[in-house]
Amino acid sequence: MTLRLGTMQDWPLNVMRLVDHAEREHGQNEVVSAWADGSTTRTNWGTIVAKARQTAQALEAAGVKPGDRVATLAMNHDRHLTSWYGAIGMGGVIHTINPRLFPEQLAYIGNHAEDKILFYDAMMAPLVEALKQHWTTIEKYIVYDPPEGWEGDQSFEDWIGGHDGDYQWVDADERDPVGLCYTSGTTGNPKGVIYEHRSMVIHALAGIQPDCFNLSERSVALPIVPMFHANAWGMPFAAPMTGCKMVLSADYSAPRMVKLFREEKVTHSAGVPTIWVDMIAHIEKTGEDLGPLQNVTIGGSAAPRAMIKWFRARDIQVGHAWGMTELSPLGTIGGKPAEWDAMSDEEQVDYTARQGRVPFGIEMRIIGDDGQELPRDGKSSGNLEVRGAWVVDRYFKADAPATDKDGWFDTGDVACLHPDGSMQITDRSKDVIKSGGEWISSIELENAAIGIDGVHEAACIGIFHPKWDERPLLVCVREDGSQVSADDIIAGLKGQVAKWWIPDAVEFVDELPHTATGKLSKKTLREQFSDYSFDGVESMTGRD
Amino acid sequence: MTLRLGTMQDWPLNVMRLVDHAEREHGQNEVVSAWADGSTTRTNWGTIVAKARQTAQALEAAGVKPGDRVATLAMNHDRHLTSWYGAIGMGGVIHTINPRLFPEQLAYIGNHAEDKILFYDAMMAPLVEALKQHWTTIEKYIVYDPPEGWEGDQSFEDWIGGHDGDYQWVDADERDPVGLCYTSGTTGNPKGVIYEHRSMVIHALAGIQPDCFNLSERSVALPIVPMFHANAWGMPFAAPMTGCKMVLSADYSAPRMVKLFREEKVTHSAGVPTIWVDMIAHIEKTGEDLGPLQNVTIGGSAAPRAMIKWFRARDIQVGHAWGMTELSPLGTIGGKPAEWDAMSDEEQVDYTARQGRVPFGIEMRIIGDDGQELPRDGKSSGNLEVRGAWVVDRYFKADAPATDKDGWFDTGDVACLHPDGSMQITDRSKDVIKSGGEWISSIELENAAIGIDGVHEAACIGIFHPKWDERPLLVCVREDGSQVSADDIIAGLKGQVAKWWIPDAVEFVDELPHTATGKLSKKTLREQFSDYSFDGVESMTGRD
Question: What SS3 class is residue A255?
């Protein structure tokens, strides 16, 4: 059905309209780059967009065509941002490569994406040089920040400097691609997610609202998330939409971050828990001032309650966000609920410790083992599925959709939904321990174990059990000098988790396996313990 | 060009997804109705959406088809809102009729819209009864709130009560129509503006952002703007998007409003200046508390500086909004600029006294008499043109577009744009006084005159002048008991406006003509003074 009685205007949701808006309405507002060498440079939205036009001309002159992939291997800075807008403006697809992946993955990704050109930071030069022989489609290499005496690839400023900037953006369809980001799964080759003009603009509109990032023109946003990590959580599109000042940093060390917070008067920041662990330790040691920081978003993995309380004690609004590359990446974010003021301090912390709730644009449900939707009762846990305006439908070059026939995308997370709409991740679906027809959350056990004195890191996996199918094994790394025992840990877990969740055994290792991006690799751990058996281990649980 | 390398999901921007979101994620949050008889009733988003499904069934049973117009003649309350969602959900187009129009206009509008059904408030019954004989297409009349002993048309609750609510919304295209609102121009017949699913959803997404209405789930929104007045400025779509509590009132009297602010803990409100004039007078008299009110948006016409200062003194964020029916209605809104904290108190008031700036989604420019775009220098004044995602392209049933070939819509306002992006209305284009090739702002002269002791109301029009083409005549209404003279007024204007703007004459009248919607009717005033001549009037200006 299409009825056109009278109409509103055709006004495509095009990323470049957002970029033009920043230039036209907020051109003088600053974009600050903090470089790895300790220096800081300043530009503004107007200059960035003007240089993006030069970049678009340079890309066209280099033979890049609409739809071609333009790769970057770089940290956060204004030239990286400029090249994004320039590439998208000439119809290109900006492909942000994650330098933390293994070299074989990097080679695979560049070739699978059929990248035509690569922009990179000088600090990545050794990696780039090693990979050049493996990348088969890249025709041109441009370096963002050649140091004095550089004799390698052409510099970005020189390369775009020859163009006059008299350029009109390509007239793209709102469903045309603008970005490409690969997810590094723990199995198989990385998969590419294609972002579109429309999805990116709606994602940014949703992202700036008070219950999400809460960005206004007066904000000063410093994402402590790499631009290659799901577009720095969308900040490079959300910030110009509001015209706020943005601070980009290539250096995530705590002293540098705190200095930037103070000197650049940062109000809004976002990052993974490890960033904040370092930051808090630094401030606790030095007593430094955080400046006017008022809004911190924590994502990537769960923030400990102590971290949440630390920010609360300083009157800094703290919230979880949960998302993934396939979600552009925002899935849920921790805007306060309507009943916030009536909640006790502990209830507020409980709420904040969950992963937040969906903004308009995302639908979410949990599905049990029988394929039925589970209630939002704060107790039932099931596979977390989403669909929405900025959720993947089909991976890059995939033959089949990434969703079921009703458009639901299985996130691979296990979660419960609370009556107030907030979502709580309880596990990854491949990590959940299935014991006697019930699910045990490995994440909850690990979080409880890490809270016990002497435990540095913990991982919980399911081990075959003849009666219960699986029972939990807890694998721990002791803190330096600690003598904590298996009995101590079991005693510490009691009362924190259900009795039948208590692991059947605790083993100690010197270190746990991690993926290239720093996540705990349960897959490797399961391989290491593939021959493990509870035979001969004195069971410590009440279930057996 | 359409490239589909991989894709994001198809997720239409459909108003009913927004309604579903409110039901699913914020179902328990309240919607309060304050009725004209002084009573208050409470429901919530979940119940409203459930009843909207019953409404959709009742409309279908009554023979209403997708694309048909469903009219309302009502103030703000939850049943009115329910019928909106129900009508849109079954594919209908909700046509909000403004009861303040003249009866001939109301008859014209109903027939031009070809309304199939009319929902109305019992208080409108005399108007409805008088118009029934003139409306040729309305087949059914439903009354929202029949009083005890009512013997007229069927009541809304009875009518929907026979349906079970087991209903799936019509699968609409995002460009399908959802709403129709007529603008009452001062010349010719009213013109209808058709709103679409997509335009309404994007308008709501833009409207909730911190620099616009700043709505979150914790907000309590009370629009003091009728739902027939450009959709209560979009609140009935913005509020459910955030799930905030909404308060709807059929009674705009100051004592009632202040009571609602306090009792319902209203945080966000919006209305025209006259609403706030009454409210401020009431509070100054009674000393009543405003409750937790924190955000006031003023639109429709300019807020006096004293009003802005009154809110500022109470730490209530106050901002102008400017818009029109053709803009859904938001054009500009007064979010604080980046440099706010560095501005002096007077500079902040100056900024707030302007009409605000565009959110992403609206483009704006000013055009001089020669058709050329004028600079954003805070001095040049020209015809204000807009285009964007929620701007009219073609009026209902119109043969030609409402825009020029590049999509620009001429607002009929004259404005200047400041370097910080803020817009300042200086006049209506048909009211501007063209004197010696330069423009004199009638609005600025009127605002200056109203600030002079003894002047109750003032209107300025251009009168033919043999040398200068036009010169200003100021027509004033004295305050009760005031003896203010023409000389006093001229003396008061000196120093406030450019010397050559000083009116050539001041005349006094007992009252000024107004339109049905309460706006000053310059057209009628010009007719009243069509034979006026400056001959024999001693000129008071420096130009002659």
Answer: helix
